Amino acid sequence: MTASGYLITCHHVIKDMDQCKPHLLGPRVYCIGVGTPVEWTYEAELVHLSSRPGLMPQRADDPMLDLAVLRVTRRLSGSPVELEAFEPLAFADSDRVAEGDGLWVIGYGQQQSDMTNTRNTMTGWITGRHSAADGDWIRFSPDILSGHSGAPAVDRYGQVVAWCVKSQYDMIGANTTTGRSAIQSQRYFSATGGLHQLRPVNSARLELQTAGVVM
Predict the structure, then answer these.
(1) Which of 182, 12, 204 lies closest to 92 in space, CA to CA?
(2) φ, ψ for residue 84 (rounded to 5)?
(3) Is 106 helix (H, G, I), strand (E, B) or coil?
(4) Is 98 buried (19+), middle (13-18) or exposed (0-12) by CB count in 10 A?
(5) Cα–Cα distance between 123 and 102 in angstroms, integer?
(6) For residues 50 and 211, what is the distance between their CA atoms, to the nearest angstrom?
(7) Which of 24, 25, 187, 200 has the most other CB atoms within 10 Å of its CB?
(8) Rg (Cα) of the chain, in Å, rounded?
């Protein structure tokens, strides 16, 4: 979050919340939770979107970053927000990180069998970088779980290097010719360790400026 109350997450998080009525307060207005376990405390308005790759672009020049920018406007009780109570995280220069650098992800990662809605921190390292048709990516070693999407990945100085976007999985027993699983009645997947994907923050700087975010 910035000192002006702006925060970023993934477009697909907002898209999923559109289907979750308790967290959708109105058109482009959402609940924001804090603490552990999470407490739904604030209202935030959606101010800018860059679509998730594979979905319809928001505009002709949409870089398809899977990015949503929101601005906290007030508490759910209707009282004002004390923005000075928040300590914004600075952005790192994500072009300067390299393979082997350590990162810490701060989020609400959950396994489907144990949805506790508690905050957690995981650590790992950068395993590589690559550029594709849908932009630049940082490869990360740990699994990115449900609840990690949009979470910041920070360096040892506490500066944001990237945000979590997606995990990579391969089908177990898949036939590479037909694409069908060897286990006909089930679809089993295994995480491809070290290939999970983060968006570097430098790729979002122009979008944030467009949204009016002062960094």
Answers:
(1) 204
(2) -65, -15
(3) strand
(4) exposed
(5) 7
(6) 11
(7) 200
(8) 18
Q: pLDDT tens digits, residue range 68-112?
A: 999 999 999 999 988 877 888 899 999 999 999 999 999 887 766
CA–CA dist 175, 115 (Å, integer): 33
How far is the CA of 195 from the CAs of 5, 8, 43, 124, 169, in angstroms?
32, 23, 35, 12, 9
Q: Report yes or no on whether pTM surpasses 0.90.
A: no
Query: What is the length of the chain?
Result: 215
Element (H, E) at 11: helix 11-17
Tokens standing for 99? 């393979």
- 100 forms beta bridges with none
Burial pattern 124-143, b for ≥16 Cβ within 10 A else e, equals: bebeebeeeeebbbbbbbbb
| Mean pLDDT estimate for the chain | 81
- What are the structural domains, with CATH classification, of the chain? 6-88+204-210 (no CATH), 94-201 (2.40.10.10)
CA atoms of 166 and 143, how far apart (whole Å) = 9
pLDDT value at position 23?
A: 58
Share of the chain above pLDDT 70, in %: 78
- Spatial distance between the Cα atoms of 179 and 81, rounded to a whole number of angstroms: 52
